[in-house]
Design a protein that fits this description.
The complex is a heterodimer of chains A (100) and B (556). Chain A has a five-stranded antiparallel beta sheet with strand order 3-2-1-4-5. Chain A is an alpha+beta fold and 100 residues long. Chain A has three helices and five strands, in the order βββαββαα. Chain B is of the alpha+beta class and 556 residues long. Chain B is built from 19 helices and 21 strands. In chain B, strands 16, 17, 18, 19, 20 and 21 form a six-stranded mixed beta sheet that branches. Chain B has a five-stranded antiparallel beta sheet with strand order 1-2-5-4-13. Chain B starts with 5 loop residues before the first helix and ends with a helix. Chains A and B meet through helix 2 of A and helix 14 of B.
């Protein structure tokens, strides 16, 4: 039996600024995970990952991260590491929490 | 302090020109990330969780006031107003932008600072006793030889592609190791032989990480004139034997373990005999030249009555003096440790204003010298006792007067998952909560000397293995989990702590530490017995009963 596919978002760091970015449904990049496209089909995720990896002028370290839909249907993290990437550090009000 | 010559300055300038061009080529697409990554790492530039991180070397932890001012400028101009001092006597900036890094490196070069070999599989920033040149208990100042090693190892052509990173530390105080010598790839103790000649005891194969090991003595005494050739032979042997098939087994500690210290010693001796003639004495002459830069400052003569009067009259000053001052080789002087561990703050962080304030104190009262300790604090190594009251007052204005050196809130903590891409759990908030908790309990001074060290992953940047209480943060099925080790020792009696048992969830770890300390307070013979002494006397079992009370109750 084929294993179930865990939904994913495509994420990376921005080449110039280094901060966390996510791919949107239209193939653009956003700083906000809630604006990312939640990929529920494995083949689609693989194709989009390849497309994202080809954008080397914008991105560093592209990968697929597990995600789930929140109460609004937007992507949210399933692992605490991705939650820290989404929000920012816990010792200062820096990173995305300060930019929101 | 050592002053770079024209060659050093030209080398830094040329290196920065190269890196600026490399950054431009990455941005315009001429270089792929795979091509660029090793180049940026060679210049101390990492990509972390939220941003780039620039790691700047502070060779053997020594800074001038102007250099500290420059570190403040970088924090203010290109970062978020602070820097993070690390257990490798480096400073890290957590938020630089790629475009700005060449400018940051140029600014550093203006004061002879750089980020070279703060990353990569090469010989990293050489560290040393942070009390070097000032301590009452040292045989000799370790900084000249640390500088010699820095010059030898920088861009050494044979050692730019080692099996893994390589860390060297130097101490001039055999009996009071403040540089964690036995947890380094190579550790050097400066010693005297029976003839009264200075030389080096060479310790090899120490290291923490996933396989913690205490270093073994490779040679009891190496003459000064043989040191560089002996080091070169040692690194060369490992370069040949080191495990390149598995990065986790690539450190020299594994090589020593797998081949045995006797075989390594013989191979090093053979290699040493071969290459010794190629060291024609220039290194010895250079060491003599370097030593002149580290001559004692001109110590002043003045009354210390004002210090004594303040000590007797002001309990807050007295508390700070008792905790934060150390014996200087000149009895009228003190070594001042400035705590970067204000309760609830991030261990090792200093704001730009604080850096400038410390620089100004060094300029006015400290013979223009500062040190960064591997314990993530800042030191003024030479302060006349008459100046201590005014220094304390100035530190209070910057909230740098916390009187906790060597106490439970003087915690080493790596950046952990708040910043580090390798981390598996957070370290900083755990340290903050422990410090705050014990400050609230007002038990800190009663507990006395106790080192807590926290790492957010198995790489052990927070030195948890050698903490009296070590905390290791891990990922257990997608949640943060923290293991406790007890009995670690970072001194010349170095020991790796023993794991207590099952780990604790994030919100359980501080109460578990509190129970551990409560156990110590009840188990100790008297107030003079420190935590580590109590642990070494009673062993793990009594502590375990405090740490896991439910297991104890169930077993009853």
């Amino acid at each position: 039996m084929a294993r179930a596919f865990t939904p994913k978002v495509i994420t990376a760091n921005h080449l110039l600024e280094g901060d966390v970015i996510y791919m949107t449904d239209t193939g653009e990049w956003t700083r906000q995970m809630a604006e990312a496209v939640l990929l529920t089909d494995e083949a689609d995720a693989d194709v989009r990952l390849i497309e994202a990896q080809q954008q080397a002028a914008t991105t560093v370290g592209v990968y697929l991260a597990d995600a789930k839909a929140d109460e609004n249907g937007n992507p949210s993290p399933t692992h605490f590491r991705e939650e820290f990437r989404r929000v920012g550090p816990s010792n200062y009000f820096h990173g995305k929490q300060a930019e929101a | 302090m050592y002053q770079y010559n024209d060659f050093d300055s030209a080398f830094l300038a040329e290196r920065n020109v190269q890196f600026r061009a490399q950054v431009e080529r990455r941005i315009d697409g001429s270089l792929t990330e795979d091509e660029f990554k090793p180049l940026r790492l060679m210049n101390g530039l990492y990509l972390q969780l939220h941003a780039y991180m620039l790691r700047v070397a502070i060779p053997y932890g020594t800074l001038s006031a102007n250099q500290m001012d420059k570190l403040a400028l970088l924090a203010e101009k290109w970062d978020k107003g602070y820097g993070h001092f690390t257990t490798r006597q480096n400073i890290q900036y957590n938020w630089p932008k790629l475009n700005d890094v060449p400018d940051m490196l140029d600014a550093l070069a203006e004061v002879n600072l750089h980020a070279i070999q703060t990353s990569g599989n090469t010989i990293r920033n050489v560290t040393a006793d942070h009390f070097a040149g000032a301590a009452a208990d040292e045989v000799a100042d370790p900084r000249p030889v640390a500088e010699l090693i820095r010059q030898w190892s920088t861009d050494h052509p044979e050692f730019q592609a080692l099996p893994r990173k390589f860390k060297i530390a130097v101490s001039g105080a055999l009996e009071n190791d403040r540089a964690v010598i036995k947890a380094h790839d190579i550790g050097l103790y400066i010693v005297k032989n029976d003839a009264g000649e200075l030389g080096y005891q060479i310790v090899v194969g120490g290291g923490l990480g996933r396989t913690p090991m205490i270093g073994k003595t490779l040679k009891e005494f190496v003459k000064q004139e043989d040191l560089l050739s002996y080091l070169e032979a040692t690194v060369s042997v490992w370069n040949l034997l080191g495990r390149r098939d598995n990065k986790y087994k690539a450190r020299i500690k594994i090589t020593v373990h797998e081949h045995g210290i006797e075989e390594i010693r013989q191979r090093v001796e053979d290699r040493f005999q071969l290459i010794r003639p190629t060291f024609g004495g220039f290194d010895v002459a250079l060491l003599k030249d370097i030593e002149a830069f580290f001559a004692n400052p001109e110590f002043k003569s003045a009354s210390t009555d004002g210090y004594t009067a303040t000590y007797d009259a002001d309990p807050l000053f007295r508390s700070w003096a008792d905790a934060n001052l150390a014996a200087h080789k000149n009895a009228d002087y003190s070594i001042v440790t400035i705590s970067l561990k204000k309760h609830g703050d991030t261990p090792g962080d200093a704001s730009a204003d604080q850096m400038r304030a410390m620089a100004e104190l060094a300029r006015q009262y400290g013979h223009d010298e500062l040190r960064i300790s591997h314990e993530q604090n800042v030191i003024l190594p030479h302060v006349h006792k008459s100046d201590l009251p005014v220094i304390y007052a100035a530190l209070r204005e910057q909230e740098l007067h916390t009187a906790n050196i060597g106490l439970i809130s003087d915690i080493i903590a790596c950046p952990g998952m708040d910043y580090c891409a390798l981390a598996t759990a957070r370290s900083i908030p755990v340290a903050q909560e422990i410090a705050t908790r014990f400050d609230d309990l007002k038990l800190e001074h009663d507990i006395g000397h106790l080192q807590i060290k926290i790492s957010g992953c198995i790489n052990a940047c927070g030195h948890h293995h050698v903490g009296h209480i070590g905390i290791l943060g891990l990922d257990r099925a997608g949640v943060e989990n923290y293991q406790i080790t007890l009995g670690g020792d970072a001194t010349n009696t170095a020991a790796v702590g023993q794991r207590v048992g099952p780990g604790f969830a994030y919100d359980e770890i501080v109460p578990a530490i509190e129970r551990t300390v409560q156990g110590y307070l009840e188990l100790r013979q008297d107030q003079n017995e420190t935590f580590i002494q109590t642990f070494n006397r009673v062993g793990m079992a009594p502590f375990k009963a405090y740490i896991y009370p439910e297991a104890q109750a169930n077993a009853a």
